[in-house]
Write a structure and sequence with these properties.
The complex is a heterodimer of chains A (645) and B (100). Chain A has 27 helices and two strands. Chain A is mainly alpha-helical. Chain A has a two-stranded antiparallel ribbon. In chain A, a hairpin with a 2-residue loop joins strand 1 and strand 2. In chain A, helix 11 runs antiparallel to helix 15. Chain A starts with 6 loop residues before the first helix and ends with a helix. With 100 residues, chain B is mostly helical. Chain B has a single domain, classed as Helix Hairpins (Orthogonal Bundle). Chain B is elongated, with a radius of gyration of 17 Å. The chains are: A mainly alpha (645), B mainly alpha (100). The interface between A and B is medium-sized, with 11 and 14 residues.
């Protein structure tokens, strides 16, 4: 079975080629079938490979498949090779599993779109690129996938390119991502320069011999890799593209901008945990950026009115949690949250898509309300996802978020301040998510009568994926329950071989701290649950029971509300500091340097040539006897010269 | 006995007449004949020196020149006829469209 590993990314590639080459020639059902079935085949194969991997002894769970040599250039040797280990196995299951459900959902969601072929082509190409990214066994192939998903993100954000805002958002996403990619590339150069190889396994093995732990070189390398992760995973200061990316179709937001692509940065850091663990300074930067982003994005989420934008800022905030986990060397917790987040955030986006679909493309929550009775399935599943992301005990989000918070507090690289900020974020998360639920599904029906007449529950192809994702949002966390519950943390055991070096330090730290930690862990857990419940009650009071309170609060804190509504004016700030100077500089280079200097020089040269030749060509009279006279005169001169010499 | 210098002088005179003919003549046929005159002046020189130096190279050259001159005359006259058909004149000064 392991010989067929390469088929996991190849199936979506086949789908991409089929739909792409026969664009516009295939009928809609065939397009949908090809798009979905290829991803399903990948998923089925991934499940089989997972069980094969599980059957192997814990320490030897690595399947490597070298397909061909890509770059044989002296010392620089890169293979196109796939690596399946516990980490990438989790990733391919998430990518193909959630991806398949979103493909199915798309069939219903894009039912009225005139270009389903183009849509599924892009979506399959994305799945192929994402699988390449997570299955790559070296940095270079990973970078190919990394750029591939960036390209697909651009294409799908700008899917409705007739809309200027959509095509602008696509460009913004691509350009901002390029900044991060540049850092990733530089980090890759340093790794090859010092280790002499780009294979993950070789780098992990040789890194302790090559780099001085905590040295400047390893810190620089890790920070450069982290710059790549910041761009892809939308962290401060490069998060600005993600909220704008909501211009794309909603299933795209669910797949690319919530469940899979934006988590690539977290995956990359987990994949290179052997390097990061050697650079405590870099880890500190990762943790600080992660936790600040989590809190910062959560505060913006409080004031947004567009249902998808609330979810977008929520995604940025949750990604911040994952980076916080990576920053305190709890890579397993980061990947765990990545997985549970993929379930409940994909579900939230798909639910939001279902709402938008029902509301005739209305996205403003101020025009919704009371949808509970119209959209029962969407309501129940979205409520489950909301409870999961808020961190209600027993649901998936609770276990993963709680593990991150605990590690932020207890890890050797952790700090109580990290916990406090993460704790506040958890409260804010619960508040803004329940604000969304109350504004959308409860209260007065604020839509106009025509929209209300059209409200309908979504078709089966959309509700079935919602239900399946809801099930996983509930049970997805059970694989990684904390030790204090007296059960095995299967998820941690599963990833242990990959994270061996990563987990060593915190483990020894925990041993040194002794058994007193258990009480603290219970205490912190109860505190966060209490905060979440209070936040939910607060949201209930403000946005459901006494809605006039929302207005009065908004008026009392109008300045703060305005700042939050305008996202701290960061877009305006970047516009003034980066975009405008670049535009003016480009204008100068065009209007002055190019037109006046370069064109002026060349045109002037051409005019001088013209003047000279205007004069010279007057000698060409067309009179044969003139030519003959000049010719004879020339002969006489030459003969005279030879005779006199 | 006619001296070598006499031949050379005759050849020079012939060549000079040819050159002047080319320069002053407006009639393309006369111009063409003047060119032939210059060719034959050169031939005369070759023969004269060949005789004076008692070698055959000059003769051989002259035969070569005569042969090529015959071919050239055929082509040249054909061009003259074509020109005449097109312009209805043999005045060389009227063949002046190839200019700036």
């Amino acid at each position: 079975m392991s010989d067929y590993l390469f088929l996991v990314p190849i199936f979506p590639l086949i789908g991409f080629l089929t739909n792409g080459l026969l664009l516009g020639r295939l009928p809609r059902p065939v397009v949908s079938f090809v798009g979905c079935s290829t991803v399903f085949l990948s998923f089925a194969l991934s499940v089989m490979l997972f069980f094969e991997l599980k059957a192997m002894p814990a320490g030897l769970r690595v399947i490597e498949q070298v397909l061909f040599t890509w770059v044989p250039s002296g010392d620089f040797h890169v293979n196109v090779a796939l690596l399946l280990d516990p980490l990438s196995a989790v990733m391919i299951l998430v990518v193909t599993g959630v991806g398949f459900l979103i493909h199915v959902y798309s069939v219903g969601y894009m039912h009225h779109d005139p270009c389903p072929g183009r849509y599924f082509t892009y979506l399959n190409l994305f799945t192929f690129a994402m699988l390449t990214l997570v299955l790559a066994d070296n940095f270079m192939l990973m970078f190919v996938g990394w750029e591939g998903v960036g390209l697909c993100s651009y294409l799908l954000i700008g899917f409705w390119f007739e809309k200027k805002s959509a095509s602008d958002a696509g460009k913004k996403a691509f350009i901002v991502n390029r900044i991060g990619d540049f850092g990733f590339l530089l980090g890759m150069f340093i790794i090859f320069w010092s280790v002499g190889s780009l294979d993950f396994l070789v780098v992990a093995e040789k890194a302790p011999l090559v780099f001085a732990a905590g040295g400047a070189l390893i810190t620089t390398t890790c920070l450069l890799l982290f710059v790549g992760a910041i761009g892809k995973s939308a962290q401060i200061p490069l998060y600005v593209w993600l909220p704008d990316a909501m211009e794309g179709p909603t299933p795209v937001s669910a797949l690319i901008h919530a469940a899979t692509m934006v988590t690539a940065g977290v995956y990359m850091i987990a994949r290179t945990n052997a390097l990061f663990i050697m650079a405590p300074d870099a880890l500190l930067v990762v943790a600080v950026i992660g936790v600040v982003t989590a809190l910062y994005a959560a505060t913006i989420g409080l004031a947004q009115n567009d249902i998808k934008r609330v979810l977008a800022y929520s995604t940025v905030s949750q990604l911040g949690y994952m980076f916080l986990a990576c920053g305190v060397a709890a890579f397993t917790a980061g990947i765990f949250h990545l997985m549970t987040h993929a379930f409940f955030k994909a579900l939230l986006f798909l639910g939001a898509g279902s709402v938008i679909h029902a509301m005739s493309d209305e996205q403003d929550m101020r025009h919704m309300g009371g949808l509970k009775k119209y959209l029962p399935v969407t309501f129940i599943t979205m409520l489950i996802a909301t409870l999961a992301i808020a961190g209600i005990p027993g649901l998936s989000g609770f276990f993963s978020k709680d593990e991150i918070l605990w590690k932020a507090f207890s890890s050797q690289f952790g700090h109580p301040l990290f916990w406090v900020l993460g704790f506040i974020t958890a409260g804010l998360t619960a508040f803004y998510m329940f604000r969304l639920v109350f504004m959308t599904f409860y209260g007065k029906e604020r839509m106009d009568s025509e929209t209300r007449a059209h409200i309908h529950e979504s078709p089966k192809s959309m509700t079935v994926p919602l239900v399946i994702l809801a099930v996983f949002s509930v049970i997805g966390g059970l694989v990684g329950m904390p030790h204090i519950f007296g059960v095995t943390n299967y998820f941690e055991h599963w990833l242990e071989p990959v994270m061996a070096q990563g987990q060593q330090a915190p483990a020894s730290h925990a041993l040194a701290a002794g058994g007193g930690d258990t009480g603290a862990e219970w205490g912190l857990m109860l505190a966060s649950v209490a905060l979440v419940l209070v936040s939910i009650y607060f949201a209930y009071v403000v946005y459901n029971k006494r809605t006039e309170l929302a207005t009065s609060l908004r008026e009392r804190f109008s300045a703060l509300h305005k700042v939050l509504l305008n996202k701290y004016y960061i877009d305006e700030f970047y516009g003034a500091v980066v975009v405008r100077p670049v535009v003016y500089f480009s204008l100068f280079m065009w209007k002055v340097f190019d037109v006046v200097v370069i064109d002026g020089f060349l045109n002037g040269l051409a005019s001088r040539y013209e003047e000279v030749s205007d004069f010279v060509r007057t000698g060409q009279t067309g009179r044969v006897r003139t030519y003959a006279t000049v010719f004879v005169f020339g002969v006489v001169v030459i003969v005279a010269y030879l005779a006199l010499d | 006995m006619i001296t070598l210098s006499a031949y050379v002088v005759v050849a020079m005179v012939l060549f000079g007449i040819g050159v002047i003919g080319v320069l002053v003549s407006r009639n393309v046929i006369i111009l063409f004949m003047s060119v032939e005159l210059m060719l034959n002046a050169a031939n005369l020189t070759l023969i004269a020196f060949s005789r004076a130096l008692n070698v055959l190279d000059g003769h051989v050259f002259v035969f070569l020149v005569l042969t090529i001159a015959a071919a050239e005359a055929a082509v040249g006259l054909a061009m003259v006829i074509t020109l005449f058909r097109n312009r209805e004149t043999v005045n060389i000064d009227r063949y002046n469209i190839l200019k700036w």
